[in-house]
Amino acid sequence: MLDANEIFELQHIVRRVPIADAVLDYALKLVRLTRLTTGEAPDWIVEWLQWGAGPRASQNLVLGAKARALLQGRFYVAAEDVRAVAKPVLRHRLITSFAAEADGVTTDKVVDRLLEQVQPNDSAVLADGRLPRVVAQG
To answer: How many CA atoms within 13 Å lie on the side-chain side of 18?
Structure first.
């Protein structure tokens, strides 16, 4: 059993776990692609969702990934941590459309397809042409 102070201390530790810009971009992109009004959502998202995830989904996706990283014995967040918590974090923040419901598409299926289509290495940080030069110089 944990008392309140121990829980607060653990929450503080989780928030201090570092996350690389590329992994943060990955988490943000997963959430952003569910938003119907940004113009970034793929056609299948527009068809399957009535409502996408908001900013708190991004925050909780990152916090969940940080907590998972610690539970896995790591002091940094990997893309696999984001992937592992994506369904629990996003499933109740998405509302499927009538068309999706008629086709038997659940929010879990939407998240699965997002995870298939969005790769962790599709990051603006990694796409920056300066990064390979910096790595090569090291």
So the answer is: 5
